Amino acid sequence: MAETAAALRTVAHNVRAARIRAGLTLEELSRRAQVSKGALVGLEKAQGNPNLATLVRLADTLGISVSALMQGSPEGRVRVVSADDVVPLWTGERGSEARLMLTTSGPAPVEVWRWRLEPGEEYPSHPHQGGVVETVSVTSGRMTLIVDGTEHIVEAGRTATFDGDTPHTYRGSGTEACHLIMTVHLPPGPAPAS
Asked: Whose CB has fewer CB within 10 Å in the chain, the N or C terminal residue?
């Protein structure tokens, strides 16, 4: 419980700092990210329990990575992260999960995710900001990747890449859990004003 409270305080601080850096009011961030103002006020006070979709929308709108919202101070030149030390940001009813392992630094950061998709379980993702590119590499099992309404089967040993600015869904398919590594390549700079 203490770890969850500390993580929420870190997210609260990082959301507020990124919002101020971007010169956005709570109202404007709420409108652009399609997150209620009440939820944002609560989040900046380290209250509530934001879900993955909310964090993705906020990060996209603020022009930063999801993990930039979640990370504290840098720990040094080399970071080694264990999946067991990272809390899943999404869990499905059948046991699927997504863990954001880390985000690289630099002008165009890359998020590295570990996913497990149980057969028949899916995660629909909102479109990201323009310039986001996702890559999924299936290490075991099989998934159906749906991008802009078209289904693509990705089996173990295969990798798919696509522009993340269209609706997309990840679905476990086959008879066993699908394990995959996903990278999300973020464009440099802040998100364009809309």
From this structure: N
